[in-house]
Each structure stands twice: as C-alpha cells, then as structure tokens.
Design goal:
With 71 residues, the protein is mainly α. α1 packs across α2 and α1 runs antiparallel to α3. The mean pLDDT is 94.
C-alpha cells in the first residue's frame, strides 16, 4: 500500500483533533499516533520500515483517518 504523503502531512497539520478523537479511550496516546505518522513522513511513507507495534498503530488509527473524508 502506498501512503499519500500529502494527505498524511495535512492530517498532522490540520486534523490533530481527529487523531485525539479516534485514540480516546483506547489506551493509546495521540503522540504515539503522531509519532508513527511523522516517522512515515520522514521515511517517504515506506511501511516496510515500521515495527510490528507501529504497523498496528498505522492500521488501527492512521489508515482509517487517511481513508475517510475530512470531517
């Protein structure tokens, strides 16, 4: 899967409230999700570089936000 870096950058800049909403009550911290997103941006969206835990965070939080239209 290719990550749309432009969309990911926009998510981090303008949609952090949505990250906080999707993480609320899950036991994960918003900064964890933001950290994974930043890591992906720094590595040109290469999902192969993610650890198993980072992949879980991506699949559980970032992918749904990237796939959904902006609220």
């Amino acid at each position: 899967m290719l990550v749309d870096l432009r969309l990911l950058r926009t998510l981090l800049r303008t949609r952090t409230g949505e990250i906080e909403e999707i993480v609320a009550g899950t036991g994960y911290l918003p900064r964890t999700v933001i950290g994974v997103a930043t890591f992906l941006l720094d590595n040109e969206g290469n999902l192969d570089l993610l650890t198993a835990k980072q992949q879980v965070v991506f699949e559980k939080f970032l992918k749904p936000l990237l796939d959904s239209p902006r609220r």
